[in-house]
Amino acid sequence: MKQSRRIYQDNTPLYDAIEKWLAVVEPLPPKEGEFIPVHHSAGRITAQAVQAVISSPFFHSSAMDGYAVRFHETFGATETHPLRLKLNEQAVPVNTGEPMPDGFNAVIMVEDVGIEGSFIEITESVTPYQHVRTVGEDIVRTELILPENQRIRPVDIGAILAGGHTGVSVRKKPVVTLIPTGNEVVEPGTAPLRRGNIIDFNSYMTGALINQWGGEYRREGVVSDDKELLKERISESLKNSDLVVVIAGSSAGTKDFTPNAIGELGRIIVHGINIKPGKPVLLGMVEGKPVIGLPGYPVSAYITFELFAKPLVYHLLGIVPEMPDILKARLSRPIASSLGQEEFLRVKVGKVGDNYIATPSGRGAGALMTLQRADGIVRIPAMSEGLAQKSEVEVTLLRSRDEIENTIVCIGSHDNTLDILANLLKKRFHSYSLSSAHVGSMGGIMAIKKMEAHIAGTHLLDESTGEYNIPFIKRLLSDIPLLVVNLVHRQQGLIVRKGNPKGIREIEDLTREDIVFINRQRGSGTRLLTDKCLKDRGIPPQEIEGYDREEYTHMGVASAVAAGVADTGMGILSAAVALGQEFIPVANERYDLIIRGEYIETPKIQSLLHILTSDSGFRDMVTTLGGYDVSDMGKVIYTTAGSPGN
Known about the structure:
Blueprint: H1 14-25, E1 33-37, E2 50-51, E3 61-62, E4 66-69, E5 83-86, E6 92-94, E7 106-109, E8 114-116, E9 119-122, E10 132-133, E11 144-146, H2 154-162, E12 167-171, E13 175-180, E14 185-186, E15 198-199, H3 202-213, E16 216-219, H4 227-238, E17 243-247, H5 258-265, E18 267-271, E19 275-276, E20 282-286, E21 289-294, H6 298-317, E22 326-331, E23 335-336, E24 342-352, E25 355-362, H7 368-372, E26 376-380, E27 386-387, E28 392-397, H8 401-405, E29 407-412, H9 417-428, E30 433-438, H10 441-449, E31 455-458, H11 470-476, E32 482-496, E33 517-520, H12 525-536, E34 550-551, H13 554-562, E35 568-572, H14 573-578, E36 582-596, H15 603-614, H16 616-625, E37 628-629, E38 636-639
Parallel strand pairs: 13-16, 13-17, 14-15, 17-21, 19-24, 22-25, 29-30, 33-34, 33-35
Antiparallel strand pairs: 1-12, 2-11, 3-10, 4-6, 4-7, 5-9, 8-9, 18-20, 20-21, 22-28, 23-27, 24-25, 24-26, 26-28, 31-36, 32-35, 32-36, 32-37, 32-38
Helix pairs in contact: 1-6, 3-6, 4-5
């Protein structure tokens, strides 16, 4: 029998979905307490107030090395009339931290006395309890050390122990059970992987979030696409869980059983939210306990889990989530967005001059690396069709401000060596990072012009002169102090599948009816090279199948070829080698880095230049990629008036 395809029950605005969710979450009582050793309590939440059972210190003690005295017996001592006190009767030797002898109430430091036989000589009287730590000076018995619902810090552990406790009552960790689902989902490490398999990483990613928030996660084995089996697993998991999360199957496909399973076991509160990514999320209650159905796409799963699971875990712990760090930044390029859906845009962020610059790191609910590489999230309102270039936006940070301010922002052409450079920069100079956004060579030049990047990668070939990069820099950046240094010379060519099954040999083969091409984006140096090759041979672009389909990186082109999406595409040799593809050389080109003059002398740029000019290890690593000539690496190719060192 043909299965009918479901539609979402709602398309609830995010604010309304959160309100509905909190209405069922907030009445849930916080977790009860458990008694654990104090030295194991860091990061846990107090379930009861902690009050001192002893004072600290609980005896009068000397705060200095010296002599314990009775303060009234020191009256009258002056420089001109020193006073003598008999050792062990009127002046008892004490060390720092030792109990004060009974009846003694002050300490004279050892360096302030003179010794004459069995006497000490002093030249100044002392005050009561001078240099004495009195009982309760730090903590007074019955004093409140920590209130209920307080996260325990390392310093709190010290205070609790000093207050006489060896154990402390903390809230039990909320238990969250994760149930990955899907016939196609397999355990990490499964071998051999078969076509159609999807490695389950969502459950481990969300589980790590639970641990980070202070909860505990339990992971069930993968459940196949079987509604009754899923219902059984949910029911069993609820017995020992505070929250059950079903991963995947919450959408509207014929094999998405989560809505029916939860609906038949309990009630659905929300199914479908007007956010992007994350629309298919499902929120429900079964047997008085919350159940969440997460979308299967990883970015959707991460974002919706943060939105709805985090406040629940924190509520059960008796605390509220920390406020995220938000900064204002300028968008480096315009962003179009779907009207009617609030979008969570992933961005890279760097500080260039006095401004923070945000550049989209990519989209797609299934593109986990767009989130992994992101520095923050920009929320685009549902009733907006996008944001203009240079718009001021609020960025919810995923990294610290210090990390962002110590990041070199590289916008421009993609090259695989940038990943090696980024890793080596972090390894050699721990404070600094390199963040690259791949928008093409021309996009990099414009980012330098608009002061949106510290450096830009470029390999633009000027047809009239046959020279790389400098003619464009002279035309577009003539009024900007800058330095151009070589990164590499590299081979560009046609990437073809292993064994070259289509027998591609030259540019002219791109016009064949059985050949599908994959192009680079407009403004990239590789696109200009492609167009020059076509022009030199008199080939109209419209005769090439796939000319209008674009990728933004060389690895994207190589991946498209390896996956059979295209038969060939223009890219660098190292990308072909990395994915085990074959390569037909077309041109040798120079890939340079443009550095804005005002940043050349900064420590982070100097650190990067040190690697380019002095790190033989970097050169060796680049050479092993294949297709690179590093003989000019770090060489100054061009500099403008006003640049440092010019």
